[in-house]
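Lab manual, section 2.4: Encoding a predicted structure.

Procedure: take the sequence of the chain (255 residues), apply the prediction step described in section 2.3, and record the output as structure tokens. A sample record is shown.
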Amino acid sequence: MSARYTVETVTSFHAWTPKLFSFRTTRSSAFRFTAGQFARLGVAKEDKTVWRAYSMVSSPYDEELEFFSIMVPGGEFTSELSHLKVGDSLMVDATAFGFLTLDRFHDGRDLWLLATGTGIAPYLSILNTPDVWQRYDNVVLVYSAREADELAYLDTIAGMRRHPLWGAAAASKLRFVPVVTRERVEGALGHRITDMLLDGSLESAVGLTIDAAHARLMICGNPQMVSETRKILQARGLTVSRQSAPGQLAVEQFW
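Recorded output:
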């Protein structure tokens, strides 16, 4: 073992679809992270170690680490991950990374969490902390997938409202908006997040307006969605938040 990383053990594996899966590993007592950050995971190949970034699904208080992944056809990393079994080993970088965290925002009333695909992962970590329920009056989780069976963790999201510590706050503050773009699903919106931002239908469905005074937005998903959404919101006067210049947007690109 190197000081740069720890070798962790896979404790569970769950396939959501043939292409989507989650897994949990042991967690070094020295590994610390802020909800919304990602870890660098490593798998050993014959002649090298391949590293990729994965956001934690688990909360910073969880004794294990959980990750959500999509199988990339021919991918040298996900092809290895998809064959993980309980008891297998995985390398975890000793340092957590990323700025998709609540401390990117200094104020705001409404927190919008916009996700496509596995981009839901960091939001599950954030929603499993007390800070989000204490800081915001409204928490809007918009989760988009192509087909209904690709919407993972629905029971986990529903369980936020029954949590023993902040369930009452979550019940009154959480607005969950599932989106399925390639089939009609009762209770879900049916258009791309970017299209619904342009025509105002997303805000109408939620009952809140996205404006610089009240809204703070996190955007996580495939690079095209992240880029297009950021441009749409910047055209409306919102800016990416930086330590030197607080704004209304925080972004992370995920496949």
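Check your result against the sample. The chain has a mean pLDDT of 95.
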